[in-house]
Inverse folding.
C-alpha cells in the first residue's frame, strides 16, 4: 500500500480508517514540527502506538490531535510491543471522547505537569469517595505533578486528571501551577554552566 501525504490534505482519522479497511500489516509513521509518532497495524487492527514521550492509547490520543505533518505507511513492519488490541473504530471513539473531556478539564487543569495541593480549611461538607479516588487523593502532596501521581499509582494520566478535576471542582484541592520538566531544568542548567577550560564543549 503506497500511502503517504500531508495532514493538511488528509484527516488523520481518515488515514487510519483507510489502513484498517485494507487489512494490512505495517506501520504508519507521522512526523510533525514538534513530535514523531508511529501506529502499528496487524491485519488492519492497531496493536501499538507511540510518540516521543508516550505509547499505547495515550499516544493515539496525542496523534489524533495533529493537524499538520507528513505521514507514510510502510508495509510488513511489526512492533514487538502490543499496547493496544482494539478495532480502530473503538480506538478513535475512545480517543475522541477523551479529547473532548480534556478540552472541558483543561480550563481547570491545563496540563498533566501541574501540581495540586490541599485547600486550607475547605468549605465542603461530607464527601464520599470511591476507592480509586481515595488512592489519588492520598497521593496529593503539593509537590508531585499529575503525571508523577499517575506514574506512582500505575494509572493513566487521563484517569488521574479526571479524578483530580472533580476534587478541584469540589473545593477540596487546588491547582498550584505547572512543574518544570526534568529535561527543561537540565537544559537551563547547561545554558548557565560556564565553558570548560581548554575550549567549548557541548554535552551530549
Amino acid at each position: 500500500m503506497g500511502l503517504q501525504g500531508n495532514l493538511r490534505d488528509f484527516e488523520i482519522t481518515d488515514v487510519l480508517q483507510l489502513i484498517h479497511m485494507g487489512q494490512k500489516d505495517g506501520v504508519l509513521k507521522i512526523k510533525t514540527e514538534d513530535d514523531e509518532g508511529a501506529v502499528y497495524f496487524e491485519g488492519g487492527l492497531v496493536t501499538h502506538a507511540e510518540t516521543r514521550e508516550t505509547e499505547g492509547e495515550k499516544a493515539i490520543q496525542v496523534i489524533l490531535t495533529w493537524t499538520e505533518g507528513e505521514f507514510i505507511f510502510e508495509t510488513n513492519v511489526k512492533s514487538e510491543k502490543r499496547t493496544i488490541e482494539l478495532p480502530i473504530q473503538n480506538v478513535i471513539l475512545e480517543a475522541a471522547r477523551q479529547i473532548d473531556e480534556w478540552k472541558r478539564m483543561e480550563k481547570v487543569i491545563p496540563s498533566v505537569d501541574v501540581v495540586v495541593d490541599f485547600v486550607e480549611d475547605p468549605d465542603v461538607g461530607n464527601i464520599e469517595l470511591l476507592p480509586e479516588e481515595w488512592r489519588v487523593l492520598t497521593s496529593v502532596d503539593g509537590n508531585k505533578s499529575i503525571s508523577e501521581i499517575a506514574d506512582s499509582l500505575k494509572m493513566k494520566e487521563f484517569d488521574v486528571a479526571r479524578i483530580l478535576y472533580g476534587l478541584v471542582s469540589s473545593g477540596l484541592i487546588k491547582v498550584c501551577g505547572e512543574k518544570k520538566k526534568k529535561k527543561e531544568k537540565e537544559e537551563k542548567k547547561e545554558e548557565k554552566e560556564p565553558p570548560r577550560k581548554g575550549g567549548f564543549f557541548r554535552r551530549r
